[in-house]
Amino acid sequence: MKKFIPTGNEMISLPDLDAETAGIGSVTFLSMRHKGMLRIAGGGDTPLISPYIEMNGRRLDLEGLIWTREHDWIPALRAGAGTLDLTMTVLPPVGERGFALRLSVTASEDCSVSWGLRGCWGGSWHCVNEDKPLDGIARCYASGWNDSLIFDFRCGTPLFAFAPMADLPCEAAHEERDGQVFYALTRSETMDAGQTRQLTFYWGFGFEEVAAATSAKEMLRRGWQWEYAKTAAWLDARRARLSTPSLTELYNVNLFFCIFFSTGVTMDTEDLVCVTSRSTRYYVSAAYWDRDTLLWAFPAILEADAALARQILGYVFGRQRRNIGVHSRFIDGTVLEPGFELDELVAPIIALEAYVKATGDRSVLEEPDTQNTISRILRRLEDARHPAVPLCETFLQPTDDVIVHPYLTYDNVLVWKALTALADMLPERYGRLSALAEAVKAAVYDRCVFADAAGKPCFAWSVDLNGAHNVYDEPPGSLQLLPYYGFCAPDDPVWVNTVDMIRSPDYEYSFAGRPIAEIGCAHAPYPWILSLCNSLLSGHDGQALKELEGMEMDNGIACESVDADTGKCTTGAAFATCAGFLCHSLRTACRENKHER
Predict the structure, then answer these.
(1) Are strands 449-451 and 407-408 parallel, antiparallel or unpaired?
(2) Which pTM does this prediction carry?
(3) DSSP 146-160
(4) What domains are there in the chain, each with its CATH number?
(5) From CA 49, how far away is CA 297, in angstroms rounded?
(6) What does R_g of the chain's alpha carbons equal in angstroms?
(7) Residues 205-249: pLDDT tens digits?
(8) What residues form DSSP beta bridges with 130?
(9) Mean of the pLDDT values across residues 479-506?
(10) Over 268-321, what HEC string results?
């Protein structure tokens, strides 16, 4: 599996910076008009943007590439090129509509050098789960707005544009071949032995030529040092220190990947939105799930950036309010995939409680959007509740797969959690829900517990209320999390028996005894990273921390599942919301065991 080093800011994502070639394969950004994400990509084997260098007229290949992440997010490269040493840093400045790329070359002998960027604009794509090529006209031309090239795409009217500017004079050239645009931005000069030269390119993006070029010009005027210092300070204010350098790096890299790839600001309307991932390497990219955003990404974001967490709640209780509980939606709140999911219906209330407890900010509770959404959720819960038993049904499970039986234990635990939260947060208005919450809890113990082969009581995965049940568990919504949500104590014998059962080598989807001894499920029959998160939160943190040592995942970033022996990604690369839950569970376990500094 190829290794990538993703980076980005609120507006621009670079999901596939190739660790082997230093080429930037594509750039993505969100568009409300298009209900998802647009992707600008290279063509064939030619990246969209790639560094190149020639010495004395001979093209040199990069060798011995060594990557680091400065401030745990800014990719920095050291490499050799013949007798030259090259460094490259890719800076996505916070608050800017673009990114900067700085090259530095050191000569070991007197020579003539030509260096800069080359690439191919091979295609443009609309991305929401599936990627579709855009039909339109791609143009490249010289512009006085940046004294360089402008790339723009038009479908009758402008759709988007991007433009480079360099901090030193460069020669710009381009040609079109077979519907693709090939370009080069080159600076030529002579260098003495021991001399170092730097060259910085600023890439701006926008709706059309002027917006793109002036976005680049804004960064150029501010300068590399100013943009770098601003971004470094922003990152450092949100980083955490855990007990070891490796855990610290793992946490921070995944935190920033979560922040910048599960949230974003749309290019066209400048609205904050939430998505599963801004990388098309994740198989359901650029769409919204209540569960993914609010149960997985939100806790880590809340701890790192409460102001951003507040914005997320505004988006959820506002634009996404109409269809809360529906399988998945476009970023504008309209339905993408229909299907009712009980865990997603109550996720906003669970996130709301977490925010109020963490910040003490109760003003969010009185917002009209918040009150309207709570009322909508309670009405939908009433519709889903059995007429005689206070349990609620669902149609889809936490994996989004269809149920076996309609009453899921885990989902009804979340209903208990949400009802309890409302009664605690707003007792004057919702205090009556305490009694209903206790009735739900009693019904779970009465209707969702069965005796295993040894006669031990265990929680069923789901029941039909007519005596049928199934034994199962799903990492995206695991029975292991019942104490985490406060439903039962960690020494509750029913829960202990349940966890022993699903972690046993006898359970179909258990990988007990393997190096990654986590749980899978029918959706992806491999150890899930979400299962590792569940282990961190349910008393198996020693094992989970050991598993994390040397686990590759998706080049250090959370994915859906991994190989049970190697820890390498098997499904769901670039899983941004999962990265958030990994951070939250890791920091929670470290804090409880005094591994946080």
Answers:
(1) unpaired
(2) 0.97
(3) TTEEEEEEEESEEEE
(4) 7-236 (2.70.98), 245-592 (1.50.10.10)
(5) 30
(6) 26
(7) 999 999 999 999 999 999 999 999 999 999 999 999 998 999 999
(8) 128
(9) 98
(10) CCCCEEECCCCCCCCCCCCCECHHHHHHHHHHHHHHHCHHHHHHHHHHHHCCCH
